[in-house]
Design goal:
alpha+beta; 2 domains; 4-stranded antiparallel β-sheet; 29% helix
Length: 221
């Protein structure tokens, strides 16, 4: 092998090592193997309900359903559990809930948002109920949770007609998916925090939701 060919092999090896190192650290790799990527976080919020819109790839999509706002009581709406039985969020055991709402778990933004809820809550999962709601079927949600090694989040499906989305003004009627949002509900079933991302391609401020949940834990009921 002549010197020129050896030089090319050396360069290719160095580039390969550089790419491997870059991929293994980009965004921060969690111990369960999930790699966080640089997805933009928005600190703005949209208004839920009829007459309002969410951006999806630059196009405005209309929201449908009755709007809800901070201070309102969380409404009764049926969602589907893993075993296909129906439940409402009002009947869950844990009094304080962080409700993570995503269009579909089969997208990178929704995947990262749900991993963040599960892995970055710094012990809140021992004191409050973590919930993810999407229009994915319960079978798809179960498969996602198993493959992602997520066992501290309750997955609930709104695939049966989008009742949860309609009841809270969070259903995108055209594609029939939920808006991207995060809610914090207190022990009296009152909505204490809500952010609806104006753009489906951006993550909500999950840290703000965590902070509100901690504040509720520290406040006598």
């Amino acid at each position: 092998m002549n010197t020129e060919i050896k030089t090319w092999y050396t360069l290719i090896a160095l580039v390969g090592l550089w790419l491997f190192a870059g991929c293994s650290t980009m965004g921060g790799k969690h111990e369960n193997g999930f790699t966080y990527t640089e997805i933009p976080v928005t600190y703005e919020t949209a208004y839920p309900g009829e007459g309002n819109h969410i951006l999806f790839r630059g196009k405005e999509l209309p929201l449908s359903g009755a709007p809800i706002e901070v201070g309102d009581t969380l409404r009764s709406a049926q969602v589907t559990k893993e075993d296909l039985s129906l439940s409402t969020l009002n009947g869950l055991n844990n009094p304080i809930r962080i409700i993570n709402i995503v269009p579909s778990l089969d997208t990178k933004v929704c995947e990262q948002q749900t991993h963040y809820l599960s892995e970055k809550n710094q012990g809140l999962d021992q004191q409050v109920q973590l919930i993810t709601i999407s229009v994915d079927t319960p079978f798809a949600q179960k498969r996602f949770a198993q493959e992602a090694n997520i066992d501290n989040v309750l997955f609930l499906s709104d695939y049966r007609g989008g009742e949860f989305g309609k009841t809270h003004g969070l259903l995108l009627g055209g594609p029939h998916v939920l808006a991207r949002a995060v809610m914090v509900v207190d022990q009296h079933n009152i909505l204490r925090y809500m952010q609806v991302t104006p753009d489906l391609g951006k993550l909500p401020d999950m840290e703000a939701a965590f902070q509100e949940a901690r504040r509720l834990l520290d406040t006598p009921s």
